[in-house]
Specification:
The chain has 188 residues and is mainly alpha-helical. It contains eight helices and no strands. The chain starts with 12 loop residues before the first helix and ends in a 16-residue tail after the last helix.
């Protein structure tokens, strides 16, 4: 099994400070004070960890998309790609953003949640098209652009790219969800 060492034992003070800062920025969303294991692993290349962390912070905390749309898209992406780690880290933020239990359960079952308003349904549809390697359908893009502008549509695609990268990290290095986080039912 591919594994990476814990870089904290050999990290310099600036890197340790950055690790603490990244953990602190995400504490309110993640409900945990510790740095997520995927970032610990990524800090084996501190420059990459900093850049990925900065993109994640921008998309999650300073982006164009509203919290509920962003978290719905992340959960859909994680579910479609069978990314248990990413799923586990986004159930709480999705709930805090107002995504109800029935929607989370439908996403966990790989179903399209029923009763979504057109904007949320379009976000799910766009993620499905991205995961399927398709272009976003014109009607879906028009709806999303009307709601969030071109910047919001770009952000939605960038979210999928970010979580693809995170998924590659967790898969390549067998990083499992921390046990105190929700597990995706029926995960494979």
């Amino acid at each position: 099994m591919a594994e990476l060492p814990d870089p904290r034992a050999t990290a310099d003070a600036a890197t340790l400070d950055e690790m603490r800062r990244i953990a602190q920025v995400r504490t309110h969303a993640d409900g945990r004070a510790e740095l997520a294991d995927v970032y610990v692993a990524m800090f084996n290349n501190a420059a990459v960890a900093r850049l990925v962390g900065a993109l994640g912070e921008h998309l999650r905390f300073d982006g164009t998309l509203p919290d509920d749309v962003r978290e719905l898209a992340i959960l859909r992406y994680a579910s479609r790609r069978r990314l248990a780690y990413e799923w586990a880290h986004h159930v709480r933020p999705a709930t805090l953003a107002g995504i109800d239990e029935a929607t989370v359960a439908a996403l966990a079952a790989d179903a399209v949640p029923v009763g979504l308003d057109p904007t949320h349904a379009a976000a799910v549809e766009a993620v499905d098209q991205i995961v399927d390697g398709s272009e976003i359908a014109a009607h879906t893009q028009r709806l999303l652009t009307r709601e969030f502008g071109d910047a919001g549509v770009v952000e939605l695609v960038a979210l999928c790219g970010l979580y693809a990268l995170m998924g590659y990290m967790t898969t390549a290095f067998a990083i499992e969800p921390e046990p105190d986080l929700p597990q995706r039912p029926g995960r494979s």
